[in-house]
Amino acid sequence: MGKDVIIACDFPGKEQTFAFLDKFTGKKPFVKIGMELFYAEGPQIVREIKNRGHRIFLDLKLHDIPNTVKKAMAVLSSLDVDICNLHAAGTAAMMEAALEGLTRPDGSRPLLIAVTQLTSTDQERMENELLIKEPIDRVVMHYALNAKKAGLDGVVCSPLEAGKVHEVCGQSFLTVTPGIRFSDSSAGDQKRITTPARAKEIGSDYIVVGRPVTAAEDPVEAYEKCLADFVG
Ligand code: C5P
Description:
Elements: E1 4-8, H1 14-21, E2 30-34, H2 35-41, H3 44-51, E3 56-62, H4 66-76, E4 83-87, H5 92-102, E5 111-115, H6 123-130, H7 136-149, E6 154-156, H8 162-169, E7 174-177, H9 196-202, E8 206-209, H10 211-214, H11 219-230
Parallel strand pairs: 1-2, 1-8, 2-3, 3-4, 4-5, 5-6, 6-7, 7-8
Helix pairs in contact: 4-5, 7-8, 9-11
This protein binds cytidine-5'-monophosphate (C5P).
Cytidine-5'-monophosphate binds at residues 8, 10, 34, 59, 115, 118-119, 156, 178-180, 188, 190, 208-212.
């Protein structure tokens, strides 16, 4: 898989999602299905979007005891998605169990990546609320190494951290990075952000873009600008 832009389809239901996807008459974008849409529509929405020819990152961020995550991943493995994820904070035992659950009887499986620290979390909140006193980039690198040691394929992190994750975990370890904003768009609840062009320079493999595309006046134009800036 090469560099690509993944659109976060954070919509409340299938009508809004298909109305949005119908606008894309050229290249079928790689899409991210998150909790909102999945909980509203269930697994059928994944099958329908796949049938329309999109690659899918199923962003359900699992975080529970190893046995529960293993069984949940076994259920998700029957959906033909390209990438699944979980929270690295669930520990190496949970990540290893997740990989086992996700692997199909024929040995194939979707890519599995770990959320390090959410891009909405900053140093202050991490220290004061989570009581993690280390610098946030050290925490991200440590969680990324844990994910790599557990056999995962990459991490979700801030685009600002992608270069360092590659230094620590290797160039082929995937960095999937939300927290993308055009220089003129509002940050919203995101904290550790940058532009598509800067994310490319730093070395993200995939950028995940939600509101800058979904809430744009012309979403196709905004998506194409992301592609031009990030993929070139
Ligand atoms: O609208 P926006 O561009 O902020 O959307 C970013 C998307 O990436 C959201 O769907 C959010 O859930 C997701 N995400 C994130 N930070 C992570 C993991 C996923 O923002 N660490």
